[in-house]
Amino acid sequence: MRTQNMNRDWIATARTLSEALPYLQRYSGAVVVVKFGGNAMGDDAAMAEFARDIVLMKQVGMNPVVCHGGGPMINDLLGKLGIESRFVRGKRVTTKETVEVVEMVLSGLVNKRIVQAINDAGGRAVGISGKDDDMMVCEADDPELGFVGRPVEMNVQIIRDLYSAGMIPVIAPVATGMEDNETFNVNGDTAAGAIAGALKADRLLLLTDVAGVKDASGEVVTQLHPDQVRTMIADGQIGGGMIPKTETALMALDEGVRAVVILDGRVPHACLLELFTEHGAGSLIRSTEPRVKPHGLRQGEAGL
Ligand SMILES: Nc1ncnc2c1ncn2[C@@H]1O[C@H](COP(=O)(O)OP(=O)(O)O)[C@@H](O)[C@H]1O
Ligand SMILES: CC(=O)N[C@@H](CCC(=O)OP(=O)(O)O)C(=O)O
Fold first, then answer.
1. What is residue 175's three-state secondary structure?
2. pLDDT tens digit string along 242-285?
3. What is the CATH number of the domain that holds 234?
4. Ligand in closest contact with the CA of 40
5. ipTM of the modeled complex
6. Ligand 1 binding pocket includes 209 (Cβ within 6 Å)
């Protein structure tokens, strides 16, 4: 019977909402930095879905901070300009010419697309980059990479001011240098980690285009201790863009972030699944003992 089926659907929906209550209570006031990678962004519908999840997080009393990437979009524009993209250990080799394109794409096209999507979903997004209020000051990461920055000074009060005033900061990973006012291209994961570390965030969610950190047999490892991550980098199980991602996770944990999750941003409602359900998503990296549940909080655990 159609009516009975509909009733069953409604009851299931109500049950899901009810089951979210302990998570909503525990995460109230929590600072959650969400890194939205270029590969995770997808089409307009996927972007709208992501934006709704971020607005929902804000609506229920969390403080989401979005830090984005946009590597594929930079590749596109560089390609149109006839400039080749080259990466070393997951980071773009960035010339003076390239960095202008990087800033145009990240602080312009990508940042404003996300801001607009969040505002369309009823949030109050404000787009900034690491340059605003000197939020992120960098020095050169490695001479081989050119204008790629490594954050050395973080001034995150601007972010706290924005979320305390009801807004959702959306941050492009472009920063100022210590000298000569250079512009630095910062890997999106590195920037998100530095921001999460400086905020001592409760969670850092790194959204990407794979289901999580995979081992040599291609299986996603749902829970990782930092020592396991170090081993997997050293023995080559972790490679490419996953290197800056996992290195970021380790650094963020060292700086006081409670836990880092690497998850598949292409899965609908990935953030909600991770934060508000028992199921979780992707690979969780933290220093403490494994949880009873695969993701989220340990059963009976009081804190985050
Ligand atoms: N052990 C691993 N587990 C998962 N992905 C890995 C691993 N080693 C390398 N990778 C690669 O890392 C990529 C994710 O990094 P990247 O492309 O930079 O993502 P994003 O653009 O979302 O920041 C994956 O698509 C995959 O090709
Ligand atoms: C230094 C460096 O590699 N910067 C990145 C910044 C964008 C980024 O990180 O984008 P994703 O998160 O989509 O990969 C780049 O130029 O591609």
1. strand
2. 988 999 999 999 999 999 999 998 899 999 989 988 777 899 99
3. 3.40.1160.10
4. 1
5. 0.93
6. yes
Contact in structure between 201 and 161 (CB atoms under 8 Å):
no
In order of 74, 103, 176, the CA distances from 182 in angstroms are 19, 12, 6
Which atom of ligand 1 is least distant from the CA of 220?
3
What span, in angstroms and rounded, lies between the C-alpha atoms of 130 and 132?
Answer: 6
Neighbours of 13 (CB within 10 A): 10
For residue 295, tell me if it sits in a domain: no
Fill in the amino acid letter for 171. Answer: I
What does the alpha-carbon distance between residue 264 and residue 180 come to, in Å, rounded to a whole number?
Answer: 39
The Cα–Cα gap between 40 and 248 comes to: 18
Q: Is the dihedral of CA 159, 70, 153, 240 positive or negative?
A: positive
d(CA 274, CA 303): 16
Q: Is 215 in the pocket of ligand 1 (CB under 6 A)?
A: no
Q: Which residue has the tokens 């990479």?
A: 145
Counted domains in the chain? 1
Q: Which two tokens stand for residue 181?
A: 């006012």
